[in-house]
Hints:
The chain has helices at residues 2-24, 34-54, 80-98, 106-123, 126-132, 143-161, 170-187, 191-198; strands at 63-65, 73-75. The chain is mostly helical. It has a two-stranded antiparallel ribbon with strand order 1-2. The longest helix has 23 residues, at 2-24.
Amino acid sequence: YIWLxxxxxxxxxxxxxxxxxxxxIYGNSDGLSAKVKYSLQSVFALGIAWFMYxxxxxxxxxxxxxxxxxxxxxxxxxxxxxxxxxVIVGSSNAVNLTDGLDGLAIMxxxxxxxxxxxxxxxxxxxxxxxxxGIPYVIGVGEIAVFCGALVxxxxxxxxxxxxxxxxxxxxxxxxxxxxxxxxxxILGKSEGLLVLIGx
Length: 199
């Protein structure tokens, strides 16, 4: 899971980098057109979704948990692919749209990643997941380290991004962080909680 998380993050960072590069180097204030940006996001997210679905080793990996309701889940089958697509593209664009004021995008991202450290660890721990009634997904616990790295890097970035901001994340940071948080929500079986924590 860790290499797929890195792949998703790098792919969406690449979209943001091209957009930022066109804005800064060529002076094109529009950057990538919305159609091109959305098309690339769609291709990457669908590829990730298809790979997750085709390599799933248990029904727990492709099921949807209902927040705050213990023991009830929906095995989505083929609907898992468009669902993953919506979560990844939606969260990526949500962070991108939030990034406008100093510190506004990174602080909620740090808080969400902090929660996902716990969710990933519990989902990937056979005894804790059984005790809490959460589906156990093999190997998800190692993603907690990646989330912890995002929390630490985000807090370090926040120091320089608060008013008056000296450093900006641009689309490179916002698209990649959003895609990673969406991917983490799917792995940690906390897609519904992503919306609640984000709000």
